């Protein structure tokens, strides 16, 4: 008998629904919320309201595209944590109501574990155990994955996430939210070696991005003359603006280059320490073209088998919740109706 999962993702500002049958994604619909752009970040209350508007049409579209009726579903998977509580509540209450109404089992999914398992969607899959560098707007982790239902975090950021480093740098450059994709775009025309930003000295497999943010702030305040605080180089707002305008591609390329080297140096260390050669990327920042290219290059250099999910499964999507739901179904990991959404969750 085939196993068919309906999945719902609503952890932040994307409402998404997907259907998967026997590990194959049949549909994956994502409704983006543009309402946040004018505020420079996601406004939680607006996100919850938009989820409420989008959830029914998105689920409907996912079922239609997959050509599946509600009767044919074996279980409903949903993102339980982590994320914005109001956003999570919309998806979790919807999933619970559907589970109750249809009498079908419920599967609670951890959003970050789902980002890792997005690597099991495509034909080209890693073998277990594998390592995964998960880079998103809220997390930066190196995960050791022993099986679809057994993974642990072996390194993570002690301050900002990689996505935040991109978005906060973009904000300093006067770019709109979310700035990560814009830095990627401008970096393509820039020289990554033109400006130098420091690499933090953090022991072990953990990351830190807050020092980078500070050095970019000083660098811009000094109109590129130094990335340490130097009063004699203090630029006026006008000079700062002009410096950014004239050098935007090189600044973006240099910032991106530093974020990528911080990430990949830790992956190299993790690969050497664990002896694992199957290495995956995951999370919204894995959509970054510079990171994808540098990761693939590092794979060739260090003899890794590298894996990156296709673009639609890198940023938040229900396809990754569906694939995780499928493996949890096979492992008999169901939730009951008392399960509640959680903004923060440990593994
Ligand atoms: O995984 P995700 O969609 O949502 C979270 O769970 O956080 O990641 C969103 C993050 C944002 O910080 C966004 O700027 C970043 O991923 N991002 C990118 C790119 N596309 C998305 N960062 C750099 N380059 C990109 N092309
Ligand atoms: Zn995410």
Summarize the topology:
Elements: E1 4-9, E2 14-21, E3 24-32, H1 44-66, E4 75-81, H2 85-102, E5 106-110, H3 111-117, E6 130-135, E7 140-147, E8 150-156, H4 162-172, H5 180-187, H6 210-221, H7 237-274, E9 278-282, H8 289-302, E10 305-307, H9 319-330
The structure holds 5'-O-[(R)-(carboxyoxy)(hydroxy)phosphoryl]adenosine and zinc ion (ZN).
Zinc ion (ZN) binds next to α3.
Strand content: 15-25%
Compute the number of helices: 9
Overall domain count = 2
Biggest β-sheet: strands ordered side by side in the sheet: 3-2-1-4-5
Q: Using the CA coordinates, give the radius of gyration.
A: 21 Å
The top-level CATH class of the largest domain is Alpha Beta
- Cofactors and ligands present? 5'-O-[(R)-(carboxyoxy)(hydroxy)phosphoryl]adenosine, zinc ion
Largest sheet: 5 strands, mixed
Low-pLDDT stretches are: none
Q: Identify the CATH architecture of the largest domain.
A: 2-Layer Sandwich
CATH homologous group name of the largest domain: ATPase, nucleotide binding domain
- State the secondary-structure class: alpha/beta
**Helicity, as a percent range:** 40-55%
What would your notes on this structure say?
- The protein is an alpha/beta fold.
- It folds into 2 domains: 4-120 and 313-330, 2-Layer Sandwich (Nucleotidyltransferase, domain 5), CATH 3.30.420; 130-308, ATPase, nucleotide binding domain (Nucleotidyltransferase, domain 5), CATH 3.30.420.40.
- The protein is built from 9 helices and 10 strands.
- It has helices spanning 44-66, 85-102, 111-117, 162-172, 180-187, 210-221, 237-274, 289-302, 319-330, and strands at 4-9, 14-21, 24-32, 75-81, 106-110, 130-135, 140-147, 150-156, 278-282, 305-307.
- The strands form 2 sheets. A 5-stranded mixed β-sheet has the order 3-2-1-4-5, with helices on both faces. Strands 8-7-6-9-10 form a 5-stranded mixed β-sheet, with helices on both faces.
- Strand 7 (140-147) and strand 8 form a beta hairpin.
- Helix 4 (162-172) packs across helix 5 and helix 6 (210-221) packs antiparallel against helix 7.
- It binds 5'-O-[(R)-(carboxyoxy)(hydroxy)phosphoryl]adenosine (KG4) and zinc ion (ZN).
């Amino acid at each position: 008998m085939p196993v068919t999962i309906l999945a719902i993702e609503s952890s932040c500002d994307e409402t998404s629904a997907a259907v998967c049958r026997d590990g194959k994604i049949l549909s994956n619909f994502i409704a983006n919320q543009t309402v946040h752009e004018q505020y420079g970040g996601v406004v939680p209350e607006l996100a919850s309201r938009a989820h409420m508007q989008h959830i029914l049409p998105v689920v409907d579209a996912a079922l239609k595209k997959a050509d599946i009726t509600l009767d044919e579903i074996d279980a409903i998977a949903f993102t339980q944590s982590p994320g914005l509580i109001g956003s999570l509540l919309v998806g979790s209450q919807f999933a619970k109501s559907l589970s109750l109404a249809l009498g079908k089992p419920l599967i609670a999914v951890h959003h970050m574990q789902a980002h890792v398992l997005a690597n099991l969607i495509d034909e080209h899959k890693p073998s277990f155990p594998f390592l995964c560098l998960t880079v998103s707007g809220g997390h930066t982790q190196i995960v050791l994955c022993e099986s679809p239902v057994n993974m642990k975090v072996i390194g993570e950021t002690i301050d900002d996430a990689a996505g935040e480093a991109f978005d906060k740098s973009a904000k300093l450059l006067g770019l709109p939210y979310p700035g990560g994709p814009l830095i990627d775009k401008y970096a393509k025309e820039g020289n990554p070696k033109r400006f130098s930003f420091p690499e933090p000295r953090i022991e072990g497999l953990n990351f830190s991005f807050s020092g980078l943010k500070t050095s970019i702030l000083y660098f811009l305040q000094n109109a590129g003359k130094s990335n340490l605080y130097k009063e004699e180089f203090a630029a006026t707002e006008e000079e700062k603006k002009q410096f950014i305008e004239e050098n935007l591609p090189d600044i973006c390329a240099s910032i991106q280059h530093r974020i990528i080297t911080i990430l990949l140096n830790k992956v190299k260390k993790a690969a050497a320490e664990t002896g694992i050669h199957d290495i995956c990327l995951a999370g919204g920042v894995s959509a970054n073209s510079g990171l994808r290219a540098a990761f693939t290059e590092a794979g060739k250099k260090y003899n890794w088998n590298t894996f990156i999910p296709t673009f639609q499964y890198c940023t938040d999507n229900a396809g990754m919740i569906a694939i995780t739901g499928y493996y949890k179904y096979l492992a008999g990991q169901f939730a009951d109706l008392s399960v509640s959404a959680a903004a923060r969750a440990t593994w």
